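Most newcomers find our protein records easier to grasp once they have seen one. Nothing more is needed to start thinking about how sequence determines fold. Here is such a record, shown just as it appears in the course material:
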Amino acid sequence: MSAMDVVPMLKLPASWPYVVSATVAMGALAALDLLGAFAAKEWMLHRSAWMGALGAASMVLLFWVYASALQFAELAVVTFGWIVLLQIGVLVLDQLRYDVHHSTRTWVAVAVMMAAQGYLVLSSPSGA
């Protein structure tokens, strides 16, 4: 019995366009990674065992979603999108939760990253 038999992979409807499937995968990965980052920061600040467990669980779930996503989306596209969305999430989380202010230059860089990600997803051979 292999690990694939024990833990089923997530599935998305085959009727969904590639762009939608890839975007859902990127968003889910970024959300799980951001949850893990938040939990790690809170654990570090408050030494909450619950936050440590939440962070560990989110990382396990993250890799299950990542492995599942590679069934229907390209590695480079999903990974790049995940990282772009994660970095934006970290900037927003820092600003809203930890009162870190970012310059206009930072937000311009975010806009450039989002445009590059959109181009990558829309120009992907699978996305056509």
The two ends are 37 Å apart (CA to CA).
